[in-house]
Amino acid sequence: MSTTRFLTGITPSGTPHLGNYVGSIRPSVQASRRADVESFYFLADYHALIKIDEPSRIQRSTMEIAASWLAAGLDPKRVTFYRQSDIPEIPELTWLLTCVTSKGLLNRAHAYKAAVDQNTASQQEPEANINAGLFMYPVLMAADILMFNAHQVPVGRDQVQHIEMARDIAQRFNHLYGEHFTLPEAAIEDSVATLPGLDGRKMSKSYDNHIPLFAPRQQLKKLIAGIVTDSRAPGVAKETEGSALFQIYQAFANTEEAAAMRQAFAEGIGWADAKQLLFERIDREIGPMRERYTALMAAPQQMEEILLAGASQARKVATPFTAALRHAVGLRDLRTSTTAAKSDKASKSALPVFKQYRESDGKFYFKLQEPSGRVLLQSAGFASGQEAAKAIALLRQNSASALVDLNPMLRSQSGVSDDEIALALQHMMTAA
Prior knowledge:
It is globular and about 90 Å long. Strand 1, helix 1 and strand 2 (37-43) form a beta-alpha-beta unit. With 432 residues, it is α/β, with parallel strands linked by helices. It is 53% helix and 11% strand. Helix 13 packs across helix 17.
């Protein structure tokens, strides 16, 4: 079964609410459990610096969002869950990509253009109060995606442009330096519900109409009681269409529960009774998560360990891949063989090969060898040919992490740098 790599970033800029849960957290957790999906989830704290200059707010929000995802069922043993700032290769890749990205492309970014238009409309200088972080945001987002060669990036329609820009940047880099990056695709989440807030508009902290995801039971009940409804009395039929109360209920209910509530509306259920049913339905789903969330928020050491473990897993991919990219652009070990480095174009077409063999000790070995015969990597002995073949397959399919996992069984050769090995394996993987 082929595996699709998904990547999702969450900016720690506030406390998650029910809309975030229904629109992002819940469907992403469900998707992460699929056997054919490899998931990367990260806390985009570098992105938060673009708009937030309160360090304590970023730290608090990072804790809240990490706890929310874990409480909602995200399993760090099944996914790679990390904090963006724990991966130093990401800002390095951002710079490599910056150097191949045209300013004209960034000028067309929606967020930047909107800020310029807003300044112009208010008769200010077009770029007043626009920081370079906002302007460069698409490149940092491209680095987040391309570092792990994600196939699919779940986004709303307002974020599709960023995926398209990441593709443009990747294509430019590949054109200049060889095929290193997978071109990502936007997984548009049209089927995911957009939850209305207390006033009927889209639930948003900026509208102050949101319901915090893990609000205490009594606060949750009070907030639900404040959902705007009309003045129709009990016994008078009510329409479900356009009803914020019904839409929120439907987002949590199963098919039978939604049908029963629809029938209750038609029969004239009182608003107070409908709100009580809504409270009970939400609390039934969120209640157990709330307990887990509260426990996690009281254990920052546990969350820190989870995020650092996730970063370690992510860097198994990021570190050797960055070494290959550094080599590709010319940031090379000066001890690198001039013979190996003199013709980059030739190295793209002439791929190294694995050769497997058995020695007189009865063990099975393999080596990674250039077409010229130069050996880049030599394995230790394996008990069976099947084990050796399995190691080769791992290196072919996921060279970055496999290099780390198989390190005790591998030996680089004299005069061969780690960069050369990483680059050779990367070329093999992208050419497959």
